[in-house]
Design brief:
Elements (H helix, E strand, L loop, with lengths): L1 H16 L7 H13 L6 E7 L2 E8 L2 E10 L2 E8 L3 E5 L2 E2 L4 H18 L10 E11 L2 E10 L11 E7 L5 E8 L5 E13 L2 E10 L10 H6 L4 E6 L2 E7 L4
Antiparallel strand pairs: 1-2, 1-14, 2-3, 3-4, 4-5, 5-6, 7-8, 8-9, 9-10, 10-11, 11-12, 12-13
Length: 249
């Protein structure tokens, strides 16, 4: 009887020792979105300028409208992407756009809004999230989250891969890395800077880096960054950010 009791006590100790579970990627993303949005991203109109183009997003109750306005010597081009379709207007005239080009324009518009409003888009239905572990960058502790996409609903770029470094205490997305296959493929690492809060929503700009090889795993790019072995390609800066809460679609 004493032998059985000792055996069960040993099992209990082992069970208690293993009771600490791996953090949930979904829970961490939820906290990051809460920190960055404060409940305001779901129903807001956001506008900003990026590389001399005006971008506007309107979201309300799950519906969205993402816009891009380009002004050049030919006039005004207005691209509009919604839950239902893509439309292009040229000087207020609706244009006929073949499917392949509509897809290209849609992806281009969506991409700028996606990065400008991270991490809000990370709870889209097609997003797959995985907890990769803990990491340290410049003396700060981070959760490392891997993101991939389902083919259904993931768009033409569903094969893109992302890694997000989310601060363990304040749940900010301070660094991210991604690989893409369009235009011959590439790998990038981004460092957030110029944080500002507009109507409760966090916005940042990015230093945009690349490694000297496409074979380097995304999870290792933060080490190369700290070693100064990444090439600074550009700065991703959104200007004149405006927010109006409770959007009207």
């Amino acid at each position: 009887m004493k032998i059985l009791l000792t055996f069960f006590l040993a099992l209990l100790i082992i069970s208690c020792g293993n009771s600490e579970k791996e953090p949930s990627a979904q829970a961490i993303i939820d906290k990051a979105i809460q920190h960055s949005c404060n409940g305001n991203c779901e129903n807001a109109t956001i506008d900003f300028t990026f590389r001399d183009r005006c971008y506007i997003s309107k979201r309300k109750n799950g519906k969205f409208q993402l816009e891009r306005i380009t002004i050049d010597s030919t006039g005004v081009t207005h691209d509009i992407l919604t839950n239902e379709n893509f439309r292009r207007y040229k000087n207020d005239q609706l244009q006929e756009v073949v499917d392949s080009m509509a897809l290209k324009y849609s992806n281009s518009v969506n991409s700028v809004h996606y990065f400008a409003q991270l991490p809000f888009s990370l709870n889209a239905p097609a997003v797959i999230k995985d907890y990769l572990g803990e990491d340290e960058i410049n003396g700060e502790r981070y959760h490392e989250i891997g993101v991939s996409f389902k083919q259904e609903g993931g768009g033409t770029d569903f094969q893109d891969k992302f890694v997000y470094w989310i601060h363990q205490e304040n749940f900010t997305v301070d660094y991210l890395a991604y690989s893409y296959e369009t235009d011959g493929g590439g790998v990038r690492f981004r460092e957030a800077f110029n944080e500002r809060i507009v109507k409760g929503i966090r916005f940042v700009d990015y230093n945009n880096y690349k490694p000297n090889s496409l074979e380097i795993p995304l999870e290792e790019l933060d080490d190369l960054f700290q070693q100064g072995k990444l090439e600074l390609l550009s700065k991703i800066e959104t200007e004149a950010v405006g927010v109006m809460l409770d959007a009207n679609l």
